[in-house]
Automatic annotation (TrEMBL):
Ranges that cross the membrane: none
Cross-referenced SUPFAM superfamilies: ApaG-like
Species of the source: Altericroceibacterium spongiae
All copies of domain ApaG, residue ranges: 9-133
PANTHER family, alphabetized: OS05G0170800 PROTEIN (PTHR47191:SF2)
InterPro entries, A to Z: ApaG-like, ApaG_domain, ApaG_sf
Cross-referenced PROSITE patterns: APAG (PS51087)
Official protein name in the record: Co2+/Mg2+ efflux protein ApaG
Gene this chain is encoded by: apaG
Pfam family for this entry, one: DUF525
C-alpha cells in the first residue's frame, strides 16, 4: 500500500481539503529567527454539482500564540472551478518567526444556482526539526 503524501484532511459540505506540509531548511534563516514551510493542498469536489473557490481565510499562529489572519481572493491567483470528481492542487509557503506554529482556516466556495458555503482547511502543525535550531 502506498502511503498518502497528504498528512491532514478535512471534508466539509462534500469538499475535501488535503494538506501536506514540509519544513524547508534551505529557505529558512534560523540565525535570523526566520523559519519557512511549504504546504501542498489538494481540493477535491466530492459533490454532485460544480463549485468555484472564491476566497481563503487563514489563521496562522506562532509559538508565542501570536495570530496572523490572512484573507484573500482565490488561491495563488486562481479561483478554480471544480466539476464533480475534479481536484485542484497548489503549493504555497509560510514564514514564521518561531520554529513552531500552526495553520488552519477555510475556503469560501460558490455553488451552482447561487449561494456560498465554507469548507474547512484542516489544522496542521508547523514544526522545525530540533536539529534545525
Amino acid at each position: 500500500m502506498v502511503r498518502s503524501l497528504f498528512q491532514h484532511t478535512a471534508i466539509t459540505h462534500g469538499v475535501a481539503v488535503h494538506v501536506a506540509v514540509n519544513f524547508m531548511p534551505e529557505q529558512s534563516r534560523i540565525e535570523q529567527g526566520k523559519w519557512f514551510w511549504v504546504y501542498h493542498i489538494r481540493i477535491e469536489n466530492k459533490r454532485d454539482d460544480v463549485v468555484q473557490l472564491l476566497s481563503r481565510h487563514w489563521r496562522i499562529t506562532d509559538a508565542h500564540g501570536l495570530v496572523h489572519i490572512v484573507d484573500g481572493e482565490g488561491v495563488v491567483g486562481e479561483t478554480p472551478v471544480l466539476e464533480p470528481g475534479e481536484t485542484h492542487d497548489y503549493v504555497s509557503g509560510c514564514p514564521l518567526g518561531t520554529p513552531h506554529g500552526s495553520m488552519e482556516g477555510h475556503y469560501t466556495f460558490g455553488q451552482e444556482g447561487g449561494g456560498t458555503f465554507e469548507a474547512a482547511i484542516p489544522f496542521f502543525p508547523l514544526a522545525a526539526p530540533a536539529t534545525a535550531g
